[in-house]
Amino acid sequence: MAKIRTKYVCQSCGYETSKWMGKCPECMKWNSFVEEIEEKKTKKEVFIIDKSSSQPVSINSIVAVKEERFTTDIEELDRVLGGGIVKGSLVLVGGDPGIGKSTLLMQVSSKVANTNKKVLYISGEESESQIKMRASRLGVNSQNLYIFAENNLSIIEAHLEKINPELIIVDSIQTVYSPEISSAPGTVSQIKEGTSKFMKISKKMGISTFIVGHVTKEGALAGPKLLEHMVDTVLYFEGERYNSYRLVRAVKNRFGSTNELGVFEMKDVGLVELTNPSQVLISEKPKDVSGSVIISTVEGTRPMLLELQALVAPTNFGMARRTSTGVDFNRVALLLAVLEKRIGLQIQNQDVYINVVGGIKINEPSIDLGIVIAVASSFRNIPIASDVVVTGEVGLTGEIRAVSYIEKRIAECKKLGFKKIVIPRNNYEAVKDVKGIEIIPVDNLRQAINIVLRG
Fold first, then answer.
1. Class for the domain spanning 279-454
2. What is the residue-averaged pLDDT of the chain?
3. Is 52 annotated as belonging to a binding site?
4. Which residues contact 414 (CB under 8 A, 6 or more apart)?
5. 97: annotated binding-site residue?
6. Is 95 annotated among the ligand-binding residues?
7. Is 83 among the annotated ligand-binding positions?
8. Does the structural domain 68-275 have CATH classification 3.40.50.300?
9. Is 392 annotated as a binding residue?
10. pLDDT tens, 422-435?
11. Is 414 one of the annotated binding-site residues?
12. Which residues of this UniProt protein bind ATP (predicted)?
């Protein structure tokens, strides 16, 4: 009897070795190696090129065909996908446990099934009765929606040919396994095989496929990075688990922009889309309280108004504490240093806390001006007028730099009834003739703080 050969595979990056190692030399992760049975290598095939084989062609002779899409009837998701689901595309959805991935995909299944398209919802984690309970809570009821509690790839493929759906939901790819591979479900080999199989099915049969991917404790998608390279679109579900707002971002999209953002609110009836998130997110802003300011930011092509809060208080310890939620900690530290150096605010012995209300994370540099003005307001205990919006990037010398999409930011402020907006001087020429809102251009940080805190 031939000896069974095994290998050890890193579950983080896919690195292979003949012996177990405590630390992966490729991705530097600890305790990530799992033993797998090494597949026998078959003799290398020799391909003979004939007339029926695909041939290299000139790019000028290729006729571009516009991709065929169908809507999910959920505007926020369609926005992120680039206008709807592309026929034959493979979409990977990742997010923390309990964030609402399965809820969103069940709602997508229902919406698509109600348009007379067959949908197959494959679950390797829940039984059919569990899925039915969630569907009943969400009000899902359609004859075109099929539920299949199975994780064997061979069985799934056989039923696909029989049902011939137009949309497949796989929840999740980590639970699906191929009987041809001896390793356990969730290992690198099984994830690669499962994703490859669904990719071939999507392209060959023209079936759009959504696969759910688990995430690691660091927030990255579990499995090799190859998983994200194989799919057409990667969506990340974000939000605090105990906060009702959820964000859907596209970090990869072969059929659209990767800058778009979808905003939802988790309720008893499922995820409800917020078509005007600005109005909701700033509705609870307190009046006549220092340290609270409305900022204008842009996610993709969508302008949003958010409330940013700062609290500055004397420290009780030898070293002042800095805490930020929703904004980059290092960026906050940099802006506090600019405040001390250029404005002269003595905050080295003050605890500083920054928070973006609603649990939303913002990386755009235009929130810089909002952060420094909120900190100055809290430090001096001077409230900021409730009808003022600020936007602008702050440089290390205290200058206010121009931001993008200034017309859209101003239009959003006008729509929600704000009277004033503070913008960088370099953006002023493009919008100085806009009526209905007072536009205040500023050159530097000192000028902006004096204008806003003076009211």
1. alpha beta
2. 88
3. no
4. 436, 437
5. yes
6. yes
7. no
8. yes
9. no
10. 999 999 998 988 89
11. no
12. 95-102
